Amino acid sequence: MSALRTGIMFSCALFFCVPAASLAQSWRSRQIEASRKSEKIMHEADKHKGLLAQYQVMRYAYANDKDPAFRLIFGQYLSWYQTFIGDYPDAALSFSIKQPLEKDDRPSPLSDPEYSARPALEAIPELAKKYQLVYLNEAHNIPLTRTLTVQLLSKLRQEGFSYFAVETIYQTDRKLQSRGYPTADSGFYTAEPISAEMVRTALKLGFKVIGYEALSDATGDAREAEQARNIYEHIFQHDPRARVVVEAGYAHIQKSGEFLGGSSMAEHLYKLSGIDGLSVEQTVLVPHQVKEDNHPYYDAIVEKLQPQVPIVFENKAGKPWALRAGYDVNVVFPAQQMRRGRPTWLSLGGLRHPYFISGDRCEEHYPCLIEARYADEGKDAIPADRMALDPVPLMATLNDRVRQGQGAPVSELYLRPGKYDLTISAEDGSPIYRQTISVPEKADDTP
């Protein structure tokens, strides 16, 4: 777990998220010290029972330290916990990777009449027909970038893909396949419900799910090489014709170009296997909470086409458009829409419906945590969805947390049709309320 957290933090925060002029030794030293402090705070948070209690430790630590180097690093840590409790808008604010126009970016597809937009859910499975290996990436604190992957899994299974290699899954969870759902011991990012739903969906579809994260404390090129070896040895070494979907973070899936002073996981895997994969980039052309962080192409595409689903661009010959070398195709996500305080992309393209929840059941224990687990799964299962309710903003500091007679907060869980065990717990994890609920096939469209 330490290698997973530290490796990802360094690959993003130290190298991608800071202007080149800031990479002086003093700034780097401050960030390294900030990373050590962040690990210590998270270790202390993990000692508390329940996600809400852990989140409280994280957010007050962030609020009480104004050092820019600390906030840059720890903001990413905080954002992970915000996704865990379903606070997706704040997670996107706490850690945002600005996407500027880079000198090697290819021209916008809007500038070439040869290119036209297609729903990504239709185009990517067609592109995958020609490949033995498909790479899909994600931004770890933006679960929007996992939503298309969840939807693609059934179509890729129909195309004959049978392995799903997932960066976040711990190799130590040897009962994942037979159990059929992830638990707190299955992985780090799988504590977030969309990540868990991604793994759960793959298991239900009959994929063999493989964890490939480096088991050592390696970083940079050594970590990339170890990840690639794990995939090769767990899959291709004994099943050379296997068709594999690989899920990874950020640029681990780039097929060419220097990465962290060496090669990416995808490049290392190609050297080992000789298999060229379809690399699907999902982390750049996404909506940010602060519009200035959007890639310039993103706003132009969304304004002109107003897509309602994720799209890709293809020319008349069927060749996909990619923003940068090293990738085969870029996904453009629609502008974010909110409903009762939550993003509507939680519907997973219509697979899940909103289910109304009132904070009345919290019995004035705020913040309270609302969780819905599939009725046929154990109490140890990561919920299908979870959210925190509070009459005041979840990012408020201790001094801000004053209630002024507001009514009970309301919101919605997003759930597939079926039966669920709904639970409500207090900040310390103690139970407040429990009920079995049923989500109908027809969505509730009441705003």
How would you characterize the overall build of this protein?
It is built from twelve helices and 16 strands. With 447 residues, the protein is of the alpha/beta class. The protein has three domains: 18-94, no CATH class; 109-330, Rossmann fold; 343-439, Immunoglobulin-like (Sandwich). The strands form five sheets. The protein has a six-stranded parallel beta sheet, with helices on both faces. The chain has a four-stranded antiparallel beta sheet with strand order 13-12-15-16, with no helix packed on it. The protein has a two-stranded antiparallel sheet with strand order 1-7. Strand 9 and strand 10 form a beta hairpin. Helix 2 runs antiparallel to helix 3, helix 6 (120-128) crosses helix 7 (144-158) and helix 10 (220-236) packs across helix 11. The longest helix has 22 residues, at 25-46. Mean pLDDT is 92; it is low at 1-20.
Short recap of the structure:
With 447 residues, the chain is an alpha/beta fold. It has twelve helices and 16 strands. The protein has helices at 2-14, 25-46, 51-63, 68-84, 88-94, 120-128, 144-158, 176-179, 193-204, 220-236, 265-273, 296-305; strands at residues 116-119, 133-138, 163-166, 208-211, 244-249, 278-281, 311-314, 329-330, 338-339, 342-343, 353-358, 368-374, 385-389, 410-415, 418-425, 431-439.
